[in-house]
Amino acid sequence: MSFRATVESMSKIMDDMGITELDLERQFLFGVYRKHIHLSKQTGATVAMPALPISENAKHTTSEPSDNATSGYALKSPMVGVAYLAPEPGAKPFTKVGASIKAGDTVILVEAMKTFNPIKSDRDGIVKEILVSDGAAVEFDQPLIIIE
């Protein structure tokens, strides 16, 4: 059965049973991925943002730069995925706030489709702020790090 046929079949079953919400959960090596889906006949399916675990070692938990970060350069995610600040759990992070980095240094990994993609700095500078937490979902063009 094709993916489309599976989704259509599940949708019909959900309609027949009057189900309007669905919670999905899957465990990974780095944590648990949770997604809440609310279905509405008027607007189609809308998906809430996934709730991923936040590392206790994360320095910053906001996805928006703070007021003092507006003067720096924002290194942005080239893809949708899950950001990791270290090469593996328990390992030393690629960078930290206040660290000097050079163009070409890996600063974050973004996992997309089970592939870990190194995100490299495209300029020399000092890391002013890290805008994502370890294991956080990131969107295309989302700022990851502020470089000064």
Rough shape?
elongated
Poorly predicted tracts of residues: 42-70
Which structural category do the helix and sheet elements fall into?
mainly beta
Mean pLDDT: 76
How many strands appear in the DSSP assignment? 11
Oligomeric composition of the shown chains: single chain
Mind summarizing the main beta sheet? 4 strands, antiparallel
In the sheet with the most strands, the strands line up as 4-11-9-6
Measured as a percent range, the helix fraction is: 10-25%
Radius of gyration from the CA trace?
19 Å
Strand content: 35-45%
Number of helices: 1
**Helix and strand run:** HEEEEEEEEEEE
Distance between the termini: 52 Å
